[in-house]
Every structure is written in structure tokens, then in C-alpha cells.
Amino acid sequence: MPRTAMPTGARWAEGGNRITVRGRTGPHTLFVRQDGPADGPPVTLVHGFPTSSHDWSPTVPRLAARGHRVTTFDLLGFGHSDKPRRHAYSVLEQADLVEDVWRVLGVGDTALVAHDYGVSVAQELLARDPARITRMAWLNGGLYPDLHRPVRVQRLLHGPFGPLLTHAVTERGFRATMRRILGRSVPDGDLHEMWENVCHDGGRLLAPRLLRYIDERRTHQERWIPALEGYGGPTLFLWGPADPISGAHVLARIRRRVPSATVVELSDPPAVGHYPQIEAPDEVAAHLARFLGAA
Question: Cα(274)–Cα(134) distance, rounded to whole angstroms?
Fold first, then answer.
């Protein structure tokens, strides 16, 4: 079957709006999309670092076609959302903003799907109000801080010289890093569109500030890990085992600590890496559609 192609970032942005929501540091304007029937079962998709909601662009049409009301957005500092330069970015504020997006859009209880950075936002949301989340799907991310293995460029950008190094990050370097964490081939054009979203409005310069989420995972693990493991709703782990950051070594613990969850390991050769929704868009959409459509 032909692989579902990603639309351009510009085309993806044309389908959404910018709305103003309030976090703990005041109002911010975020890029938001809603797809699918207005009365469909709601599902919210949360993207990862350093990219944007555009990562979900091959997934959204499949879920919308199944009748779901799909909400996606660019988190603060990402994609087409506001990118304040000197802001102290925080997962806690990102969760505040998600809650306000839901309020503004009239989203009540919702299924939640999260990837990478988004898994920390989702863990915070679960810690606050697990009853609001009807079912939870996780894609590769640092659910357990001690198992997270950031790549070299992340470690450098997270270090003391990160603000200087941001100016040396290029599309060529981005693509090379992506190739190291992907398990399956992704077209160069898709990687270019992802890079364009990273760079939009100077976003690549924010990496050191956004990477503070690595520290927040350690700070809040006593709340976030019990929220993950104690969630009582239907749970899916849809995972790329070839991911060097959060791959098969994380699945081993998930199987022990969350035994009631459904685990789907995308291991058919070549095995999927860190970006399942980009590397295997049709498989991911099909698994999510089945999970979200379950009674």
C-alpha cells in the first residue's frame, strides 16, 4: 500500500487558527486545528520536541474519517504558536495552556494521544485530572527519566553553551540527527517540512529553553510516574523499538509496570524508531483508529 504523504507545513497551517489562551505567565496565542465532525468523540493529539502538530498530519484525516473530533495544536514555543524569546518554558504551563485550549474550544472529556515531549504534558494532565481522559495512547517518549537517552545534539543544546550552539544548527544537521533516531526511511521532503516548522519565527533558537523539560521530568517524576502507572482507563503503548532515545529498553519496563495496557511494538522489519507517526503513518493511524473506536 502506498505510504500516506505529509502535506506541506503551509497547507497544514491553512487548516487551523490562532487562538489566545492563558497560562500561568499570561496570555499566549497558539496555533490550533479541529478536524472531523463537531459532535464526534473527542481526541486530542500532543506533539513532541522539536517539531509541531504537523507531525500528526498523516494521522488526523484517518481519525476524522472515522468520526472523531480531532484537536491538534502547536505547544508554546513550537510550530506556528507564539515563541517568546526569553520565556521560562515549562511543562506545567504547557498543561495549563492545553486545559485552556479545551475550555475555549468546548472540549470536555477527551481521549489523549501523546508523543515525545508531549508525553510529559500528558503525564501532568493525568496527574491533575485523570477522570477527564477517556483513554490514553502513548508513542515513544521519556516516560521514565532514568531510561531517557537524549542524542548528542540534545545534550549539547541542554548544556551551558546551548544558546551559542543554536546558531550552528542547520537543516543538514537536523536531517542527520533525524536519520539516526528513525528506524524506517522518511522522504527528504517530509524532513524538510519538519525543519521548516522548527525554524518558523526563529524557533530553532529556543531549543535550550525548551529542553528544560528534561530536568522537569526528574523534578516531577514522583507525580508523573504514578499518574502513568495508576491511570485506570484504556491504555495503548504504540512504540517504535528501534528508537535509541526511548525504544525497546522502555517497553521492557512498561510491560512490567503497566501490565493491563495494550502494547503494540512496531517491529516488522525495518523496525520503527522514534517517530512512529512519521515513519509508519498508516500503521499508526490504523492502530489508533481501532483503539479509539473500541467500546
Answer: 25
| 294/66 Cα distance (integer angstroms) | 12
Which residue carries 478536524 as its cell? 35
Angular region, 132: left φ>0, alpha ψ -120 to 50, beta rest: alpha
* Domains observed in the chain: 9-293 (3.40.50.1820)
Residue 63: which H helix or E strand, with range?
A: helix 60-65
pTM: 0.97
Q: How many CB atoms lie within 10 A of CB 207?
A: 22
Q: What is the pLDDT of residue 4?
A: 77
Instruction: Measure Cα distances from 20 to 27, 101, 104, 150 in Å.
Output: 6, 8, 9, 32
Q: Which amino acid is at 288?
A: L
Half-sphere exposure of 173 (CA within 13 A, CB side): 12
- CA pair distance 158, 41, nearest whole angstrom: 39
**What is the DSSP secondary-structure string of 133-164?**
EEEEEEES--SSGGG----HHHHHHHSTTHHH
Q: Sheet holding 17-23: strands in order across?
A: 17-23, 26-35, 69-73, 42-46, 110-114, 133-139, 235-239, 262-265
Report yes or no: 181 and 292 within 8 Å, Cβ to Cβ.
no
Residue with cell 474519517: 65
Residues 172, 173, 179, CA angle at the centre, nearest 5°? 90
For residues 62 and 253, give the distance between their C-alpha atoms in angstroms, rounded to a whole number: 31
Which pLDDT band, with edges at 50, 70 and 90, does 281 fall under?
very high
Q: What is the pLDDT of residue 295?
A: 42
